[in-house]
Amino acid sequence: MTSLCSNRRLWFALVAMLAVPAPRAALAVEHILANIEGRHQRFSGKVVHEDPAGGVLLITDDGAMWPITASAIRNRTSDSKPLVPLNKKQLAERLLKEMGPGFQVHDSKNYVVVYNTTRTYAQWCSSLLERLQKGFVSYWKKRGCDISAPDAPLPVLVFSDKASYARYARDELGGSVGNAIGYYSFQTNRIAMYDLTGSQELRRQNSRRGTLNDITQLLKQPAAEPLVATIVHEATHQISFNCGLQTRYNSSPVWLSEGLAMFFETPDLSNRRGNGAIGKVNYSRWNLYRKNANAGTSPRLKSLIVNDDLIHNSRTAFDTYAAAWAWNYFLIKWHTEQYVAYLKMLADKPLLVLDDEKTRLADFRKHFGDNLNELEKDFFRRMSRID
Ligand SMILES: [Zn+2]
Q1: Cα(78) to centroid of ligand 1, in Å?
Q2: Terminal-to-terminal C-alpha distance of the chain
Q3: Residues 169-203: pLDDT tens digits?
Q4: What total number of domains does the chain contain?
Q5: 193 C-alpha to center of ligand 1: Å?
Q6: Distance 81 CA to ligand 1 centre (A)
């Protein structure tokens, strides 16, 4: 289960285009008319980064972030109004308008779920997401992170079936929609997914799309575990990038973002408060990590740190995800303070600047020490004691 989190590849292409950073404080809302892939589009939002050529990274009132190159911009004006994030009602209206007929909205404390499946399934999702968010924020606060619940509602799209989900996702992910059951997008800031109770693997007579209890029972079966874990994984990315723990469009290593999301993947659907399972061993990742570690084929720490190639390469991704889970698990459990400081340093990195290998290695060493061999030995020792 390789998840499709954000559009990192697009990000790299944009980094190359936007080149040298020239951050500028921008309080006003800018209105930009841009020609993107042959279509004129209007954007209104706050410029959070501008490059010397005039390309911008714009955050809009729905939390989306749009990288727009200078050559795409046709017209640009600004006013003196501050950018005010949409409230739940406004976000719901915006999403319903975009998604069209057949969609409805279910909102909860921190989420706006727009769906065209059953209301009960939308309720099941928002309940899972609320519990996850509460557990996530409290977990990191207890470990000294200066974060808080996102200050704007988070958007979630739930499609009734895989085909309609894939049609929506294709615009953004292109051919890489694959078998993923959901994804979080850096650009739109949304999670998109489809109703799992309609999937072939889980469908059982009379149990599909029934009561909240039916859904919970259906999604408790072992076959559903990796699917629910994917929803939790994508939702963890969304929370992490909206609560101040991580920053979108900066140079955060992918092994870290992915390992962090996998750390929270162990869902405990029987726990109504939902955070009892945080930090449990993620056995599906651990089994693969251990098999590779025993065979001497698990990626070395340095190769995870210096660039994102192993995790981006479809041939090595699955094994690298397992190693990334193991490293994040180890560092969060046994080097908590250093991990928290490392996250903070990464969150403060400038937007749209891609660190080179030397910088990545130096950043890691600064927090976890110069002797990577010693750290690896301790890692293997501690991880081999898990059973
Ligand atoms: Zn991910």
Answers
A1: 36
A2: 22
A3: 998 888 777 778 899 999 999 999 999 887 666 66
A4: 3
A5: 14
A6: 35
